[in-house]
Write a structure and sequence with these properties.
- With 280 residues, the protein is of the alpha+beta class.
- It contains six helices and 17 strands.
- β5 and β6 form a beta hairpin.
């Protein structure tokens, strides 16, 4: 197994490992890389749905997504990201995650890890953008660090965006809406395994600062959003066939760009999401 850094910001490219047949020693090495680099890209994989579930479950309990219409028909723990249409029916959600977020930040216990298994990748486009939120926190000025220490914020699924190019075009039914109530998390969270602090606010889901007035709340959040989404903090992952990508939602923010793909550029990815703990 060999791991080479993807950039000075975040991530490592991993070769020489078969996720379909990973033994305990190999998994321990992968987990160590995961905590060290936050984002891993496993190259040249042929990971079956069953293999993806086996690997994902070694990290923890798996989620079944609230948008059940996009779950795999045979494996409900696999959420299908796809712009393909088969027999007149969407094969998956076409523009999922097209905004800055951390997976399931709108839940009491958000996601620990997300694993994406490339099934069909276009020759270009469809990059995924990532931000190392450790670094975003560490490079805040001292006054802002002091201000946000101890503050909490409300996270909301499908927070209304002021930008027309962000968000997903999906309609939720009454039960899905009822299953996603607002939750409150610290603005700065401590990683339960590394002990490092990370900024935990996301333009697509963090709606307001708890206990603050609307104007003051939005002023602070917009300042934090502008800080962590600066281009200097972004890493753009260019997908290749055979990629399996995993990242740590406790210290990583991401954004899909699939809304920019022409319909002729077909893309299908299988996603599994490992549940985490309540942020502190």
């Amino acid at each position: 197994m060999k791991a080479n850094p993807l950039s000075s910001l975040i991530g490592a490219e991993v070769r020489g490992v078969d996720l379909e047949a990973l033994d305990d020693t190999g998994f321990e090495a992968v987990n160590a890389l995961f905590l060290r680099h936050q984002l891993l890209v496993f190259k040249d994989q042929r990971l079956s749905p069953e293999g993806q579930l086996r690997f994902s479950r070694r990290l923890g309990e798996l989620d079944i997504h609230v948008l059940a219409q996009y779950n795999h028909p045979d494996y409900p723990e696999i959420f299908v990201l796809s712009n393909e249409v088969k027999n007149g029916v969407p094969a998956g959600i076409a523009d999922g995650g097209s905004y800055w977020h951390s997976d399931f930040a709108f839940r009491e216990c958000p996601a620990k890890a997300t694993i994406l298994n490339a099934r069909l990748i276009p020759p270009e486009g469809g990059n995924t953008l990532f931000v190392n939120m450790y670094q975003a926190y560490e490079e805040l000025d001292d006054a802002t660090k002091s201000l946000v220490a101890g503050l909490r914020a409300i996270h909301r699924y499908r927070r209304k965006s002021t930008r027309a190019d962000e968000g997903t075009r999906v309609t939720m039914d009454a039960s899905q809406l009822a299953g996603t109530p607002d939750v409150e998390h610290p603005i700065v969270r401590t990683h339960p395994e590394t002990g490092r602090r990370a900024l935990y606010v996301h333009p697509g889901m963090t709606a307001e600062v708890s206990g603050w007035g609307e104007a003051e709340s939005q002023e602070l959040l917009e300042k934090l959003f502008a800080h962590c989404t600066q281009e200097k903090y972004q890493y753009a992952l260019q997908w290749a066939p055979g990629d399996v990508v995993m990242w740590d939602n406790r210290c990583v923010m991401h954004k899909a760009t699939t809304r920019e793909l022409p319909a002729s550029m077909r893309r299908t990815i299988h996603r599994t999401t490992v549940m985490g703990e309540r942020p502190v």
